Amino acid sequence: MAIYGTALLSICLLVGVVLGQLLGVLVGVDANVGGVGIAMLLLILVCDRLQQSGRMQPPTQQGITFWSSIYIPIVVAMAASQDVLAAIRGGTVAVVAGIVVVVVSFAMVPLISRIGRSPPESTGTSSPPRRDKP
Amino acid sequence: MTEVFESLQQVLTKYSLVTAFAVVGATVWISYIASERLTRGRLHGSAIAILIGLLLAYIGGVVTGGSKGIADIEILSGIGVMGGAMLRDLAIVATALGVRMDEFRKTGISGIVSLLVGVVMSFLVGAVVAYGFGYRDAVSMTTIGGGAATYIVGPVTGTALGASSDVIALSVAAGLIKSILVMTMTPFVAPYIGLDNSRSALIFGGLMGTTSGVAGGLAATDPKLVPYGAMTATFYTGLGCLLGPSVLFMLIRSIV
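C-alpha cells for the assembled complex are given below, as produced in the milestone run.
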C-alpha cells in the first residue's frame, strides 16, 4: 500500500530531524545540524535493504516516488512564499554581499571538484591528491 | 454577484492547501508551455515556474506588506504550507530514493571540504563587503558574513554576538538575496562550472549551503542532481551556526 511508503518516508524524516536537533544541542548551536541529510541516508539504507530482500512492493515505492515527483511544484510554492520584498529592500550592503558571495561560490565549484578526483585511480587512502589550491 | 465571490473566497480559504495545489499546478503548466513555445526549451520550465513564484512573492509582499510572499493573501495561504519547511523537507528526502550509497562514499571528502570552504568563504566575503560599506566592528562584520552564509546563520550569529537589530535584518536580507540568486542563476551557470554530475552537485550543495537556493537551482538544472546537492546543503546551516559565533568571530576580530 502506498501509505507504507509515505509512512516510511515520514518516519525517516522525523528520525533524521530529531537526530539533527540533538546534534545541534550536543555541539551547542540553536540549529538543526544535517537533519534532512541524516533522513536521506536513513531512507537510502532502509530502501536498499528492503529492495535487496524483495520486500519493497511497487505500491510501497509509489508512496515515496509521489513525493519526489511533486518536488518541483513544492519548490515553486517555496519560491512564491519567500520574502522577496525584504530581500530587495534590504539595502545595498545586503544586495552586494549576496551577489559577491554567490559569484565566488559558483567559481569555487570547479576548483573543489578537482581536489580529490583521483587522476590515475589512486588507492584513496590518507590524503587526497591535491592538484589545485582551494 | 458579491455572494458568489464571497462563497468562492470562503471555499478557497477553507481548502487553502487544495487551492495551492491548483494554483501551483497551473503556474507550472503555463511555465512549461512558455518554456517550449517562447524559449524552445532552452530555459527550463521549472526555472520559469520558480521565477514566476518569486515574482508572485514580490507582488504579495507589496500588496500585503507581510513577510511570506504571496502566501500572505488569505486565499493563497496554502502556498505557504505547500512551500513550507515541512513538505519541502519531505519531498527532498523522497528524492533520495534511487540514490546509490557508494556515490556518497566516493565523494565524501570533497563534500566535507566544500562545506568547510563554503562556510568560511561566505563569512569572509560577507565580512569584507560589510567592511567596505563602513561596518567596521567585528560583531557587525561577522553577522553580515553569517547572512552571506544563509539567512538562518546570519540572525543566529548576530543574536549570539549581540549585534544590533538593523545589522541582523541586513544579514537576513543578504541571505535571501543569495538564495534567490542561486535559485535563478544556477541553470545558466551550470554548464560553465561543470555542474552536470552527482559529484559536482554534492560540492555545489556544500559551497552554496542555502537549502532553498540549492533545491530550486538544481531542480531547474537537472532534477537528478537534487538529492546530492541537498544532502550537503542540509549540513551547511548547522555548521555555519557552529563556526560563526565562535571560530570565525575570533578570526575576524583578530584581523580587524
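Chain B touches chain A through 109 residues (CB under 8 Å). Residues 2-83 of chain B form one domain. Further analysis is deferred to the final report.
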